Amino acid sequence: MAFTLDDLDTIIANRASAAPAESYTASLLHKGVLKCAQKLGEEGVEAALAAATGDREGLTGEAADVLYHLLVTLKAAGVPLADVYAELEARQNRLGQAERGVGRDADA
Question: Are 7 and 67 in contact (CB under 8 A)?
């Protein structure tokens, strides 16, 4: 069975109750949503740079960091992953989504 975002979300939820000195996840959550968002932004930039330079291995690692920090930020902000899934599903179900280019950059 493949590792999923739901698996990662469960791990983050379990680690959230640990002492901040014992868990990186707990320490981030203890610092609040602003610090979590800052880390997410840093990892996003690192992923973008790896992609721009053609560093596939680096991009893979940074993408994992982005997903992890995104889920930590969602947890800190009180937004369940299920809400994100629901939003993605709603976008797929909207009339004309395929023609409008879901997820496409406005400049593309």
Answer: no
pLDDT of residue 104: 59
Domain annotation covers residue 49: yes
Q: What local confidence, expressed as pLDDT, does residue 71 receive?
A: 98
Q: The domain spanning residue 64 has which CATH number?
A: 1.10.287.1080
Phi/psi for 40 (5° steps) reads -60, -45
Distances (CA, A) of 8 to 13, 20, 75: 9, 18, 12
Domain annotation covers residue 99: no
Mean pLDDT by 10 residues, the chain (108 residues): 96 97 97 98 98 98 98 98 94 67 56
> How far are the Cα atoms of 49, 76, 83, 97 from residue 102, in angstroms, in the given order?
23, 27, 18, 6
- Number of neighbours of residue 46 by Cβ within 10 angstroms: 17
